[in-house]
Amino acid sequence: MDLAGQVSPVTPVGGDTRPRLEGSVPPRTYRDDMRLLHTSDWHLGRSFHREDLLGAQAQFIDFLVETVVVAQVDVVVVSGDIYDRALPSVDAVSLCNEALRRLADTGARTVLISGNHDSARRLGFGADLIDAAGIHLRTDPARVARPVLLDDPDGPVAVYAFPYLEPDAVRAELLGDDDGDRGHTAVLRAAMGRVHDDLAGRGATRSVVLAHAFVAGGEASDSERDISVGGVSVVPASVFDGVDYTALGHLHGAQAINERVRYSGSPIAYSFGEEHQHKAVLLVDLPPTTGGAVRVASVAAPVHRPLTRIRGAIDDLLTGGRWADVAGHYLQITLTDPQRPREAMSRLRSRFPHTLVLGFEPEGAERDDASYVARLRGRSDLEVATDFVAHVRGDADVAERALLGRALESTRASERAG
Ligand SMILES: [Mn+2]
C-alpha cells in the first residue's frame, strides 16, 4: 500500500540543512498534544554489496536528531532491527550509543524494541538503568503490558513496546501450556490481550503499540530477513484494533496498512529492489482523546547515494550521454551484449565507480541461462527447501513442510541467541 493521499508530501532534505528542514516540517495538527516520530529498521552496521553504509547511517542519525528538534517531537519510537546482527560491530555499537545520547539531549523520550535481527539480551543490557534518562529499551516479552507512560495536557498516553516475539521463544511466556496455534498471530494476540486488560484498568488513556511483524497487506522488499514459516507469521492487522496508533517495523518500504497501523520503513535502501522507494520518517500527531483522528506526515530522509538498475550493451553504457546522470549512483548493471565483454567490471567502474552488481543477460538468450541467484530471488528459505525436496524426490507433504519450517525457525532462533 502506498502512503500517497494519506500523508502530506514533504520536501526531501539533505543531511545538514536546518533552514530547509524547518520549511519542510508540517505544523502540529493538535496544538498541545503529543507528536511521535516513528522510524524502524536502522540495521546499524549493515553493508550493501560490501559497501560500508556506516557513513550513510551516521548521516541519517544527524537528520533524525535535527528533525526531532525542529519538529518538536515528544517521543521517538524505533520499531526494531536497531542493529543488523545479533553481534554488531564496535563501530555500529558506537553509532547507536551516540544516537541514544543525542536523542536524550533533545529532551524527547525514545522507545526502542528489538527486531528479528537484534539479540534481545544484548540490546537490552542496562535497560532499567537508562530508563531514567528517557531512553526506554524494551526487549523482554514478559513486559509487553507494562507501558512507557507519557502525558500531555489532555492526559496520559501508554506506549506498549513489544520486542520481536519469536513464537517458539515466547510461547511459554505468553501462551502458557496452550498447545493450540503456534504462529506469530497467536503470540501477538496474547500480547494484545494483556494490553487491553491493562488499558481497561486505566480509564481514558490514549495508546500506542510498537511491534516488529509481517502484517497482512504489507509489501516485502528484498532486504528483510524472512520471518515467514509456512505463512504462519503473517499477522492480520485486526490484531491491533483498539489502539490509537501501531508503529510497525520489519518491512523496509514505508506503507500504511490502515489509518492507524503503519510501517515507517527503513531509513536507507538495503537492496536494489528498493530503488523506487522514498525513505522517510513519520511524524504522528496523536489526537486529544482516544479514538480521534491520527495525523501522519512523512519527512524524507537524506539520500546518501541513489540506487539505480540499468541495462544495455557495454559500449553504449560507456559512451551514451543518457547515463551521465547515474554515474555517481550505486549501480546494478545488466549487460546485454551477445558475448560477455572482457574486463567488464573494471571498464564500467571507470565511468561508474559505484557499480556494485554486474549481471549478464545476452539479448535473445533462453531464460534457462538465468543465474541460480536470479532464480532464487524472492523465494523464502522454506520455498527453496521444499523445491529442492520436490526436485530430488517428489513433493513434500504437510508434515514434512511443517518440520522443515520448524527447523528453519529454530536455526534462526539459535542464530539470534548468538
Ligand atoms: Mn529489518
CATH class type of the largest domain: Alpha Beta
Bound molecules: manganese (II) ion
Q: At the fourth CATH level, what is the homologous superfamily of the largest domain?
A: Metallo-dependent phosphatases
Shape: globular
Q: Outline the biggest β-sheet.
A: 6 strands, mixed
Count of the domains = 3
Name the beta content range: 15-25%
CATH architecture of the largest domain: 4-Layer Sandwich
Query: What order do the strands of the largest sheet run in, or round the barrel if closed?
Result: 6-5-4-1-15-16
Poorly predicted sequence stretches spanning 5 or more consecutive residues: 1-19
The total count of helices amounts to 12
Number of strands: 19
State the end-to-end CA separation.
35 Å
Explain what you see.
This protein is α/β, with parallel strands linked by helices and 418 residues long. It has three domains: 18-300, Purple Acid Phosphatase, chain A, domain 2 (4-Layer Sandwich), CATH 3.60.21.10; 307-375; 379-416. It is 30% helix and 21% strand. The protein contains twelve helices and 19 strands. The chain has helices at residues 18-24, 54-70, 90-106, 120-123, 127-131, 167-175, 184-200, 314-319, 344-351, 372-376, 381-392, 398-416, and strands spanning 35-39, 47-48, 51-52, 75-78, 109-113, 135-138, 148-152, 155-161, 206-212, 214-215, 234-235, 245-249, 255-258, 261-263, 280-285, 295-300, 307-312, 330-335, 355-360. Strands 6-5-4-1-15-16 form a six-stranded mixed β-sheet. Strands 7-8-9-12-14-13 form a six-stranded mixed β-sheet, with no helix packed on it. Strands 17-18-19 form a three-stranded parallel β-sheet. The chain is globular and about 70 Å long. It starts with 17 loop residues before the first helix and ends with a helix. It binds manganese (II) ion.
